[in-house]
Design brief:
Length: about 280
């Protein structure tokens, strides 16, 4: 896992100005990157106006103008339109030789390289939605052409949380399944805990408050402690107590097997998305 690093000097072009791009832009500006070094292409006028107003960055309505002269391109468009967007930038990519960083799920580095015209430094990135609050985590994979420029990619993504380097691109689907989709699993757990609390007689307000703070506290302990999750769980599980009764019920119901199946399903879906875009 990388430590936060300073972002290299040079313009960066965000191809797409949605929520994840906005969080990255906000993180970079907060870390002292000049707004003048950040360009954004966003087809929706209201989003362009908001980005200009909130961060002072230059906004464009076409990708070619935003990418002109930029040494780093952050590709933040939906997977379904990535091929078309890359094709429109292929000529510039051959001329400018940028570092292309993609946050699109299921699109491989070889696909991006091919769509951008070949011999392009490509880094695949899989951030997650807590990046919107500056507490995300991102898995990064670099193709051979981007090996010497990996730190540039890490420097950009560090703006919204730590990064983890992935050496085997096939593992990026597992990254997507574990951390990219992972916040939704926690939200589902929160829903289920709140509902169960209400069934036991708690008001919806009390159940919600108890669940939210419990998850926050547990996550804080997990991130601040040197102990693994297994040890922390054991410490709070007194023999014969209430926690043990709940844990045994989870285990008897196949909790671990269900989680394994869910992660495997998400991983398979990532591979299917990649194959669908060939």
């Amino acid at each position: 896992m990388s430590e936060p690093s300073s972002f290299p000097i040079g313009p960066v072009a965000f191809i797409g100005g949605g929520n994840m791009a906005r969080s990255l832009i906000g993180g970079l500006v907060a870390r002292g990157v000049a707004a003048g070094d950040i360009r954004v292409v966003e087809p929706v006028a209201a989003l362009r106006e908001a980005l200009q107003r909130d961060f002072g960055v230059a906004c464009f309505d076409n990708a070619q103008a935003a990418a002109e002269g930029a040494s780093v391109w952050l590709l933040a468009v939906k997977p379904q339109v990535m091929r078309e967007v890359c094709a429109s930038l292929a000529e510039q990519a051959r001329a400018q030789r940028p570092l292309a960083i993609s946050i699109a799920a299921g699109i491989t580095a070889s696909q991006l390289d091919r769509w951008l015209g070949g011999e392009v430094a490509v880094v695949r990135a899989m951030p997650n939605t807590p990046a919107l609050l500056g507490v995300g985590i991102t898995g990064l994979y670099a193709n051979a052409a981007a090996a010497s420029r990996f730190d540039q990619a890490a420097g950009l993504l560090d703006a919204v949380g730590p990064t983890v380097r992935i050496d085997d691109e096939a593992q990026m689907d597992a990254v997507t399944a574990v951390s990219g989709s992972g916040p939704a699993y926690v939200f589902l757990l929160a829903e289920a805990m709140q509902q169960a609390g209400q069934i036991q007689g708690l008001s919806s307000e009390a159940a919600r408050a108890l669940v939210r703070q419990t998850l926050l506290g547990a996550a804080t302990m997990l991130t601040q402690s040197e102990e693994p999750a297994e040890v922390l769980r054991t410490r709070v599980t007194s023999p014969g107590g209430t926690t043990q009764a709940a844990i045994e019920t989870f285990e008897a119901g196949g909790f671990r097997e269900l989680v394994d199946s869910a992660i495997a399903a998400a991983t398979r879906r990532g591979r299917e998305l990649s194959a669908a875009n060939e």
